[in-house]
Design a protein that fits this description.
It is a single chain. By secondary structure, this protein is of the alpha/beta class. The chain folds into three domains: 3-167, Rossmann fold, CATH 3.40.50; 179-270, 3-Layer(aba) Sandwich (Rossmann fold), CATH 3.40.50; 277-385, 3-Layer(aba) Sandwich (Rossmann fold). 33% of the residues lie in helices and 18% in strands. It contains 13 helices and 14 strands. The strands form three sheets. It has a six-stranded mixed beta sheet with strand order 2-3-1-4-5-6, sandwiched between helices.
Length: 400
């Protein structure tokens, strides 16, 4: 997988914030060396967040986000500010753009408080130094303050280098998908049914992540469909160190794989990878306490055409009703449509979040926690209902 093919969930999100006419869009264009954002002297030119997936050296694959002015006015302005605040939920690094010839105003100070509240590393980019009377009047760059001119391209490389230093402080690249659970030359069997929701010729993202991590760990990946698993295991000259399966065929695979071989699922590994495994394991207990009329939110991070056997809209509701023997109400969300107010729900079952970055998934989890709504994910729910949760989490819990 090339850097240009890196999925959005694995890219560093770098967002530019500030008031109208601070030069956010001009600075974005200067850093990306592209006309990514429309630039104008008219306040409020950027009315919606503008996102661009790209490779930004020396950082690698990133998403650059230009946001509307945080001091926008009127009813529409308030809605734009709310959209800007939502960007903070997935932001890895924030750039506050302000003018070089003045102190921060109240709106900018409010943004910094939001950065700190959400533990987002940030840089203050003092723009428009070309309008400062003398070069001697431009202060030296500090740890998180960089003086730039988007128009004259002054300080752009310094700003990139500062972003690079902050990127090393993020958790984006610290966690392995499966590499810490295996050793060099281990055999890892991946059970990968052909997912009807995946585009033709492609594997779903957790499968790609697993293969890449196994290769990087100098282990050996053996990929098979569930219909060929028996023959695959027979053909191996030694036992695999672990079998990783798609959750939809968990029950079938559990019967095939001998008990002495470790077994888990892509979805459970994804919950760990995204940082919400503990809460998902705690949240799944709520399934046993569901009552008639309870409301369940089934949420996906991506948007795709629903298939007739779709796991979120068809299989999970069916399995939940069969397991609980209750009449349950279901609602669904996808993409960025995750609701802020979760008070009506008795349980949230989220996908693995492969198309969301960790910050966004953690935000959703924390939002549910604040509103006392149990939060779990697809794979853990399925393993729980099929009676194989303990086996499927043992490879992770006892990995050390």
């Amino acid at each position: 997988m090339s850097l240009n093919d890196t999925p959005v969930g694995e890219r560093l999100n770098i967002a530019f914030f500030g008031c109208r006419n601070a030069g956010k869009s001009s600075l974005v264009n200067a850093i990306t060396n592209q006309d990514l954002s429309v630039v104008s002297d008219i306040k409020g030119t950027t009315t919606d967040p503008v996102k661009k997936s790209m490779e930004l050296l020396p950082l690698g694959p990133v998403i650059i986000i230009d946001t509307p002015g945080f001091d926008d006015e009127g009813d529409l302005g308030e809605k734009r500010i709310e959209k800007t605040k939502k960007i903070l939920n997935s932001c890895n690094i924030a750039i506050l753009v302000t003018e070089a010839d003045r102190n921060l105003n109240k709106k900018e100070e409010e943004l910094i408080l939001l950065f700190k509240e959400k533990n987002i590393p940030y840089i203050i980019a003092k723009n428009k130094v070309d309008k400062v009377d003398k070069v001697d009047n431009i202060p030296q760059n500090e740890d998180n303050i960089v003086y730039v001119s988007a128009i004259e391209k002054f300080g752009i490389e310094e700003l990139k280098n500062t972003i690079g230093k902050l990127s090393n402080k993020t958790k984006q690249n610290e966690v392995k998908f499966v590499g810490d659970l295996i050793k060099k030359n281990d055999l890892v069997v991946l059970v990968t049914p052909i997912d009807s929701a995946a585009p033709k010729g492609r594997m779903i993202m957790p499968q790609q992540l697993a293969i890449r991590d196994i290769i990087d760990s100098n282990a050996i990946a053996v990929v098979t469909k569930e219909t060929q698993l028996v023959e695959t295991l027979k053909s191996l000259k030694r036992e695999p160190a672990i079998v990783i399966t798609d959750s939809q065929v968990f029950e079938k695979v559990n019967k095939i794989v001998p008990q002495n071989i470790k077994l888990t699922s892509f979805s459970i590994l994804m919950a760990r990878y995204k940082g919400f495994l503990d809460q998902a394991l705690d949240g799944v207990k709520a399934i046993n306490n569901l009552k008639n009329g309870n409301n369940i939110l089934i949420s996906e991070g991506c948007t795709h055409h629903r298939q007739c056997d779709d796991i979120g809209s068809v299989k999970l509701p069916k399995w939940l009703k069969e397991y609980t023997k209750k009449e349950l109400n279901f609602e669904w969300s996808s993409g960025n449509g995750f609701p802020e107010n979760l008070s009506k729900f008795d349980l949230i079952i989220h996908c693995g979040g492969c198309m969301l970055n960790s910050n966004e998934v953690i935000y959703r989890m924390e939002n549910a926690k604040k509103q006392n709504v149990p939060f779990t994910n697809y794979g853990i729910s399925i393993a729980h209902m099929k009676g194989i949760l303990e086996r499927s989490i043992n490879p992770i819990i006892y990995s050390n």
